[in-house]
Write a structure and sequence with these properties.
The protein is of the alpha+beta class. It has a single domain, classed as Deoxyribonuclease I, Chain A (4-Layer Sandwich). The chain contains four helices and eleven strands; from the N terminus they run βββααββαββββαββ. A six-stranded mixed beta sheet has the order 1-2-3-4-9-6. It has a three-stranded antiparallel beta sheet with strand order 5-8-7, with no helix packed on it. Strand 7 and strand 8 form a beta hairpin. The model has no long low-confidence stretch (mean pLDDT 90). This is Endonuclease/exonuclease/phosphatase domain-containing protein.
């Protein structure tokens, strides 16, 4: 059984930030779990604290969670359109801090909402992002969107084998 040392860095209502070191591995890295602001007028706040979080540690960085916003219009199906300017600013707050989307396999949208008029709005709100150092440390990392009949969000699973089996 593998064990890890996990140390707390910081937390708020919308994030938790930790460091992780697997026993027998050379790399210590950090992970930030994020829950984005859900209100339409507050979504920008999810990207805003990334610069501050970046200052907490220079370790290889993985960030993931329910961001409550999309990076591109193609990540939304049906429903009212979103402001291109706000989407760009949101995505750029991640890129400006060296965080890149890790991609995924599986169904393209991770959230759905059934509207009163029968329309189903779908968006990719949940994702993992990492900086280059983390991606180089875990080149075999892979994100999969799962299935769910009990939630409006699909689970997202990150696999990153660190050793040959």
């Amino acid at each position: 059984m593998e064990t890890a040392t996990v140390d707390f860095i910081s937390c708020s209502m919308h994030h938790i930030d930790i460091t992780i070191k697997w026993e027998g591995e050379d790399v210590t890295w950090r992970s930030s779990g994020v829950y984005g602001w859900p209100g339409s007028q507050e979504k920008w706040k999810t990207g805003a604290p990334l610069s501050d979080l970046r200052t907490h540690s220079r370790l290889p960085w993985l960030m993931g969670g329910d961001l409550n916003e999309i990076f591109h219009h193609s990540e939304k199906k049906r429903g009212p359109s979103k402001s291109q300017t706000l989407i760009d600013k949101f995505r750029e707050s991640f890129l400006d801090n060296g965080l890149y989307d890790l991609g995924y396999s599986g169904y393209e949208f991770t959230w759905r909402n059934y509207q009163q008029n029968g329309t189903v709005v779908e968006e990719r709100l949940d994702r993992f992002c990492a900086d280059t150092d983390w991606s180089l440390s875990f080149p075999n990392a892979h994100v999969t969107h799962g299935d769910s009949d009990i939630s409006d969000h699909l689970p997202i699973l990150l696999k990153f084998p660190t050793q040959e089996m």
